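Inputs:
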Amino acid sequence: MIRFNFPALKIGCVCMAAVLLLSFQFALAGPLKLTVVLSEEGGAYLEYSNALGALLANKNVTLTVIGAEKALPASELVIAAGMKASLSVARAKPAAMLAVLVPKEGVNKLQKEFSAQEKSAANAFSAIYLDQPYKRQLDLITAVLPHARSIGVLYSTAPAELNKLSALAGSRKLEFHERSSVSSSNLYSNLQSLLLSSDVLLALPDAEIYNASTIRNILLATYRNKVPLVGFSSAYVKAGALCAVFSTPEQIARQSLNIIQEYTEAGILPAAQFAKDFEVSINEQVAHSLGLNIKSASQLRSEIGVVP
Amino acid sequence: MNASQNGFRQYAVGLVLPVCFLSCFHSSYAGEMAITEQSYLEDFPVVLSASRLSQPLSEAPNAMTVIDRNMIKSSGFRTISDLFMLVPGMYVGNVNGHTPVVGYHGSTEEFSRRMQVLIDGRSVYLPPFSTVDWEDIPLNIDDIERIEVVRGPAAASYGANSLQGVINIITRDAASVNGTSMSLAKGSEGVADATAHFGKAGETLDYRFTLAHREDSGYGTPVLNDAKFTNQANLRANFHPVGADSFDFQLGVSDSRRGMGIFPKPDNVFRNENIASSFQQLAWLHVQQNGDEVRLNYFHINRNLVDENYYSLNAGGYVVAKTQADRHDLELQQTLQLGKSNRMVWGAGARSDYADSKETLVLPYTVNQGRLFAHDEWRLSSAALVNIGAMVEDDGMGHTNASPRLAFNYHVTPQHTLRASTSVAYRTPSIYEEKANVTVAYVSLGGLRPEKTISREIGYLGEFASAGVTLDARAYNDQVSDIIFVDPAATPSGWPFNFANMYSANYYGYESTVKYRWSDSGNVTVNVARQFARCAITGTATNPFFIPLYLQTDIDECPVSVPDYSGSILLTQQLGQGLQVSAGYYHMGGIKMIAGIPQSVMNRVDLRAAQSFGKSGQPGSGEVSLVVQNAFRDDYTKYSITSETNNIQFNQRAYIGALVNF
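Outputs:
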């Protein structure tokens, strides 16, 4: 869950200061010099760095947290949170970098930027994707809507791995329906015709289709057609999507800690990867209203995968 | 405002501005757009909040029938009132070609005044007669999203006058019409309809607009002058700037000319009535981030009727008679999520009704009403749900009524639900019943008590998902007391009539609905109702001869004021290649309303065939259809209280329709 409020920010700052002081004490014992670069100093980025700071409290690590526009201090490992920070870090030639809170599509671009550096070592780049694997999303759909026979997706430009999604749907005997909507003028008529042939609509992270201006009418149309929307963040569920699977900044921080430890021990970073831990969120009011008898979020979570 | 809210607002503004910026300039720079994680981290307002989510049948505190767009289409019905033949236990009849009668569980009469009728929360039950003018509501049947018919009193949720049931019409959302469509229908009995729909869903503003013309020649009998011509316009717009607030604006006008008169009644000659109806409605909805919401709703409805050649007893001859009715209503409602298992709706409203009719009231009257209501949905466990609520109203006629309701729903398994509920509701006397002033005919003495219902029911809802079957059954007992009836006041002639709280009735029986869906292409809905009625005189007539000589006979015949059996079957099948066929069967046993004329048994079969073309909803697509009503010519008599019209029959009718999307 993402919280944005003043008290959290204050506590976060106090924690960060404590962590920084604490890590400074260990500086002489040869701690890992770790810099975390945030795209923005708030929201999910701050939540991530707070969580990581707390996890590193007793570790032999010197942690520095800076904004994306600041000059990068001498570091052995740099964690960049968000695309903006990741791009500037990739161009700043650090010894090793881990990109977090970045979409998989962006990671390919980052990797290219980073490997363009002469000094870059083969195992010096890693990332934890913000996207969930399609399999996990389909697992959720099958668990929540076992009677669904068709799934629809709407996009402005087809995502790179759309054929993977359609093949996965096919292997579960789910008919796959896709519509491309290039202009906002035909968005709702495309959506309407897609909803007529689909039992569930899977939202894709396509800002042309799903944004703060369109989400209202998209959700109202799905509800009117009794076709639930499956989102990819808790914000979707709060707004009225039936369910979503997503990883929290805290879960990504925990996975980052494992990568940091691996790097400290072996000096190499693992390949870019999906978040291992995740959460399932359900909108119970929407489920009730659609007459769906669905399991609790925690039951669904344990059905979809083992907590790492 | 506390600190955390404040913090959130600042963040939300920070987030929304870049999002607006992105979406506004997105299209032109799409190719160069950087890949961002914005979509994953973006926050949204709550869209599907409590008032936009309907309660599933298995959790509703009352028995409920839902008529959706597919059923409306399959039925082939042209008028809104006919749709209620799809509700178990509901009576639909016609005084003439333009005056339908809709009733539930006996005590049915011409004015359908014992049910609440709401359209998007707007009560259309009009003074001074407390009636619903079904044909003149500025609403086209195509603009209905769904109708929820609450079978039983539900004042706690739907307000005053939900005495025997509630018809809750929900119209299409402003965003649900995209593009233009036109439809035409032509058929027997002079049917000639034309409708045009326009609409667009935008980023912050959605609208739909409908223009419609409807006409027919009524029953087509020389006894009745009941042709009608109606022009309607209806607009719904929704303004929803990004964030927590949205504003729904609706307005409609209807202008109609209808024939009046019964041959050969000298005081009811053939003539025309002109009716102008209009409404304006503005609703503001504010949804908080935790899902709690506040809704402020204002509406005004107006109806002006001009009878060109009315025989006025007050004037002692033929006059141009005018009747004006107005209703203003303001309501504030708050929905609160009180913990995970408890949700409460509470609110307050005020209403002002105005009626002016020289020929029936002499003086204009204004009645101001106020109400307070609260309803709580409490989930005791995953299996048990309690709905408890009440409304307290000051009816503006000297009464304060409290209408409580308690319902308990128990999911034996998630697929099988038992329900028990009890409720009380009142019907405020109409302005006419209280203040009628028609020389030598109707002169009210006033002082009427509101009619009261005490209702009890048990119900079962079953879902047999693997077989595609759902079953909804219930047994009920409604005790209606203080029913208002005419009271011939003078001796010995009887005239003029007063109105008095004259009798009580006990309506009981059972109803069930079975739905079977064998595939995406075919389904059937079967409704059956078994009804019983017992009445007793509980009031005192001013004229001592009235009860033994007249009313007692009617009261003795009360058991036949409801049909023994009634029901409907609606079957729909897609035959492939865009061909859809449907058939409706409607049955009602013979009845005789209290003080009415016996009606014959109805066994009516309606058939519809439709061929669609093009890609559904896209420009160039459309449909042609043929509807045959009463296909097997099993003619039946209409509702009647006058001997001249007692044998007019509903015969076979057919019309063809065409619809094109642009």
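Remarks. The longest strand of chain B covers residues 494-519. Chain B touches chain A through 65 residues (CB under 8 Å).
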